[in-house]
Amino acid sequence: RPELAAVLGADRFVQEIKTTANLQHPHILPLFDSGEADSFLYYVMPYIEGETLRQKLDRETQLGIDESVRITTEVADALDYAHRQGVIHRDIKPENILLHDGRPMVADFGIALAVSAAAGGRMTETGLSLGTPHYMSPEQATAEKDITGRSDIYSLGSVLYEMLTGEPPHIGGSAQAIIMKIVTEPAAPVTRIRKAVPAHVAAATAQSLEKLPADRFENARAFAEALANPGFTSPTTQAVVAAAPRGPWKLVAVATSAIAMFALVLAAMAWTRPLPPAPVTRHDLSLGKIVRPFGQDVTVSPDGSMYAVSGELDGERAIFLRRRGEADFHKIPGSENGWRPSFSPDSEWIVYRNHAEGTLDRIGVSGGGRMTLVDDETIRPYFPHWGRDGTIAFGGPGGNYIIPAEGGPPVHVPSLGGVRPFVLPDGSGLLNSPRRGAIQIHHFASDSTWDIIADGTNPVYAESGHILYTPASGGLFAVPFDLETRQVTGRPQRILDRLASDAGSRGYSVSRSGTLVLHDGEPELRYEQSRLVILDRPGAADTLPLAAGWAGAPAFSPDGTTVAYDFAPTRDGQANIYAYDLLRGTNSQITFEGDNRDPVWSPDGARILFSSERENSDRRDLYVKPADNSSGAIPVVSQPGRLTPNQWLEDDLIVFTSRVGADMDIWTHALEGGGDPKPYLEAPWIEAYPSVSPDGGLAAYMSSETNPGGGLWLNDFPLPAGKRNVAPSGYYPRWAPDGGTLYYWRRTGGVHSLLSVTVERTPILVHQSEVVLETGISGGWDVHPDGERFIVTILEPGAEAAGTESAPTRILVVLNWFEELEARMEN
To answer: What does pTM read for this prediction?
Structure first.
């Protein structure tokens, strides 16, 4: 880059880089030429047919132990030669190790030294990022000016660590986080992640990663010899160094001056070129002979090093564990009958449901230490989640509960819906969702619960700063979320189309480091068109002959001869109101401007009330227009929120639902006589989709007061004097013309059923519900004035999805998935 050349000076750079041309070694990529051309500095190296070690690791994740040791030994031989020539690489990483027929060749040797020397040691002024954070030595990370060959030994040890375990010694969400771990935290022993690593290889790896340069190997040759010596044992350990630092570069000093050092790191990172993101890679995760029962997720540990699953092997049910680098899952001793595991924040324990005993237990990941936390048959704990603050939350028939990780009386959280809670990282509250309902948050300090996402289930907070969830339409979505304010801060985005999730399983698990385990199952059935169908009680169907597209919200005219509906050519397109004459078979367009939906007839059938989004996309106001198109539309209600008309009563009183954010309330407005709209029902919970009885005395509506997924209620109208529960779950109520029967819909297992209840007055009695029809309908519907026929909206997949078969369910592991998540959110 010309700007870099200006800082370095072309002559000085060319002079210094010639030093690397003198390096001649079978494992060092030679330098052919260098110079300046049109303000650009350049150097020339031979083309190597093969791949980089990074590409191999991306494909295989971990390498064989013998192969890892061989590659490290040969690279160490190259480093030993270069160090004896006075050349330090400074940027050893998998990207700079080329594999030609399996033989490693170190590339870019000495380039870092040449740049540093040409810049007079002022690395922050060169614009180059020398040393990838994952492989930086502590002295590089803290901008030490004098770097020795032992820095390269640390970097090579980091590469060996990744070849053995699948990840570098330290990982984090940012370069700064990684550097702080390199400076202050010891690397976990490789045998903790991969037990098959021989003791001498683990000891050599540990010594190469010592924080103090003096505690590492004296030279690269000693490193290679240790790897080849089965009797080698490290004279020091990182744990000892962390506990009792010694020498001039002391970890105690590092700890006491962490703020100053971190500021230095931030300053250096601010000057350097942005680091390339770690590559996103995918590979299948095989369960081997384990049978995974329906609804059982594969869960990744918070540190990304282990996977756990409830399963069955040879007729025995238990929890099975697999560490990264291991070939197979193995049973955790003592976890028999274990169900739905959740890792502890330090990845050392698992909490789970003992399905045979009905208890909530915890156990060490290696077995042992088993402890029963909850033994109460009235609670029946399910779906535990172990929060970072030590709180364990779980669901049950009575709602949600929390307990301390060491045990104690469960505390009930009655106001939160759903049975699969997730503890927020700061321990301030829980996320959960009722089935097919809104995602809610419960705040412990204020003992309050509110909706944050209108349509979603299975919520998880990811370290990327997003809430992940699955909507009713399928797939995986993400939305930015502020932990401090506990509010959504952006628009949701679809991240994955394929996700095998249901009410019993999330279908995904994500670690704090960004490793995603995905149950890649049936693709989302994308509905691209709908049709309007008239049904009678025996189930005979008559589809209206409309154009292909997205039709919905049908409404019979008061005389039953015409159907008003909204129609858009595509699912996401703008809609207009149409009227289909059932007697003549003619179709008339009623609206022509904006996005218009949800038609409602006036009592005399002369006008149509509808919602319209015209100038402000954050609002949907209410308009009225003559059904014969004799004049234009006029606005009748304009207020903040998205308004949906529900009914037009005889005295020109309209009833509508107002949605502001996730809040939904029921309002009324008198069209004659002026005045402002008035709230009929306002509450902290959702109240929507009202239907007023023909005599005007009762309103049926959906409410989330006792069921977050929505239940059916009655209340006096026009003044709400006394409410009565009709059904624990139900939506879209409609009265029959005689006023004695109330119809509503209920969804069970993907099947929509139309039910009816008989309602008596004086006193008001609601009789048991009866199923009238079962169909795959979704969306708006209406009752014909004769009370015997119904018109419904039936959704259908698009032409590409119809009749296709999907690939079988499989389990995928996606490494560094947060990079992909951020890219999708930006788009």
So the answer is: 0.43
